[in-house]
Amino acid sequence: MKKISPIMILSVTIAILVIAVLGLLWFIQSQPDPIRGIPPLTDVSPNEPDSSVWGVNFPNQYSTFLMTAENNTRTAFGGSEPVQKLEVDPRLVVLFSNMAFSKDYKEDRGHMHSVTDVEETERVNETTPGTCYSCKSANNVELWKEMGAAQYASTPFSTLGKKITEPIGCVNCHDSASMRLVVTNPALEKALEAQGKDWRTFTRQEMRSLVCANCHVEYYFAGEGKLLVFPWAKGMRIENISEFYQEIDFSDWTHGESGAPMIKMQHPDYELFTADSTHYKAGVACADCHMPYTKDGAAKFSSHNMRSPLLNPEASCGTCHTSVNYVTERVSIIQNQVWDTMVITEDAIIEAAYAIKAAADVTGVDPVLLAEARQLHREAQLRWDFIAAENSMGFHNPSEALRILASATDIARQAQLKAIEATGQGLNIQVSTP
Ligand code: HEC
Ligand code: HEC
Ligand code: HEC
Ligand code: HEC
């Protein structure tokens, strides 16, 4: 019997292995791309503004998203009832004297109401720029690509309104082909770039908060073209934002009582939350509390019914906290502490505004000191408004909220003293408060 040589065995083995590997590669290659577990029922075009089209593929996300139209429950400091804030706290009428927020300032509601609510507010008029639609509609994604952000912004509100048919929708947060979370607002993209950040490198958990920053942030309209800009170039703390506005010499309006050049803050939910809050530092995201996982039979999905977590605390907090009662009670305690502190700040700012007004009427008042007093009024109020315009009554970051309010109260009292000093009449001046 002839012996089979070891070389022969080796060659045959190698040949079989090579064929096997090639075969396997061919098999893998000829498989369809594993985009989704279940093939989509319908193809959704990249800019599709109509959420019902996306809803064909994702009925659970769509049906929960629709619920944002029905929510109408009020909570102690939030919820979805469009309460007139000016009636709850009449101090706001003085604080926003000579600007639109002193006429109409309602509590926010669900995402499905975004277009109706912005079109119905008494703050909108013929001079309103199209930029006001920036955080309201699913049509924006297509419009920004077609028109560019600059032309979008400079189109008058009423003209642009003819192209706005949809409220906020899936396309504001998702890429239609992969369903990945994406940044869609060019202003957010730019603001991150200015900080040397690229959202494409963010982790999934970071994106679960960042998509909200497309809209839940402080912003301003730059220049004649009213381009939407986030004032983050120096950082996202209130001190950085204030410094930024000072440097570009920006103001939204002149205060009706004090004559100070003022800044209106707009819902800085993302900035307050990310300013080293306990939850942010622990890696918790907006979606963890506002989009808790929900079950439909065997399917687990993120509830797209974004609303107050206090209406659903078992799902929103219970995934991480063993005692839901304990933590919701903490929310109530924190919010009441922040509210009480905020009212003290408001009284201090109002007294400063009236002191400046009274000082301005005194003959021989020192114009330099008066201007300094106005500057202090501006500084105090933009700090207070950072917390007042934020949507959680301090809960997103309790210690930072109280730190900012303490500093606002201090600056307001400095403004009041400066006004008195400007009169050169010592402390004899009579200050009238409402
Ligand atoms: C740890 C849980 C938690 C996280 C994380 C969180 N929130 Fe909240 N949020 C709350 C609670 C609690 C309230 C207060 C609700 C109330 O007063 O009814 C709230 C209130 C709000 C409101 C107002 C809701 C209303 O009913 O008017 C908005 C808007 C909001 N959050 C957005 C955000 C955004 C954006 C982020 C991320 C930047 C975020 N939240 C992160 C728990 C959370
Ligand atoms: C405001 C932003 C936002 C909008 C608008 C939005 N989503 Fe989402 N969506 C999210 C976030 C955040 C997640 C969680 C993603 C993660 O955990 O990676 C998510 C997750 C999903 C997922 C993955 C599975 C799951 O449930 O976690 C699907 C599918 C989805 N959304 C579909 C939709 C559809 C359909 C719409 C429109 C009806 C929509 N989304 C609107 C933010 C949004
Ligand atoms: C495209 C802009 C946009 C994006 C993106 C967005 N929001 Fe909103 N959100 C709004 C606007 C505008 C309102 C107020 C609508 C109104 O009052 O009509 C709102 C309201 C809310 C409310 C209050 C609901 C109520 O019933 O009072 C919550 C909570 C909320 N958003 C959470 C989130 C979270 C969490 C994310 C991110 C996962 C997010 N939003 C992303 C624009 C946006
Ligand atoms: C994804 C997990 C997660 C979710 C969801 C969550 N929390 Fe927390 N929470 C934490 C972590 C982590 C801490 C840090 C302290 C700890 O380890 O217990 C914390 C701390 C707290 C604290 C103490 C805060 C402090 O500054 O000491 C309160 C109050 C609280 N959570 C309330 C809530 C409420 C209310 C909800 C629901 C609206 C909620 N949390 C949802 C993870 C979570």
Topology:
Elements (H helix, E strand, L loop, with lengths): L5 H24 L21 H7 L1 H8 L18 H4 L2 H5 L18 H7 L19 H8 L1 H6 L2 H5 L24 H9 L9 H7 L9 E3 L4 E3 L8 H10 L5 E2 L6 E2 L6 H6 L3 H4 L4 H5 L2 E4 L2 E4 L10 H4 L7 H37 L6 H22 L9 H26 L11
Antiparallel strand pairs: 1-2, 3-4, 5-6
Helix pairs in contact: 2-3, 17-18, 17-19, 18-19
This protein binds heme C (4 copies).
| Beta strand count | 6
Count every helix, treating DSSP H or I runs of 4 or more residues as helices.
19
* Biggest β-sheet: strands ordered side by side in the sheet: 1-2
What fraction strand? under 5%
**What is the CATH third-level topology name of the largest domain?**
Flavocytochrome C3, Chain A, domain 2
Number of domains: 2
Average pLDDT over all residues: 93
Bound molecules: heme C
Unreliable residue runs: none
CATH uppermost class of the largest domain: Mainly Alpha
Per CATH, which architecture of the largest domain? Orthogonal Bundle
Report Rg: 28 Å
First-to-last CA distance: 116 Å
CATH evolutionary superfamily of the largest domain: Flavocytochrome C3, Chain A
What is the chain-wise order of helices and strands? HHHHHHHHHHHEEHEEHHHEEHHHH
Shape from CA axes? elongated
The proportion of residues forming helix, as a percent range, comes to 40-55%
Alpha-beta classification: mainly alpha
Largest sheet: 2 strands, antiparallel
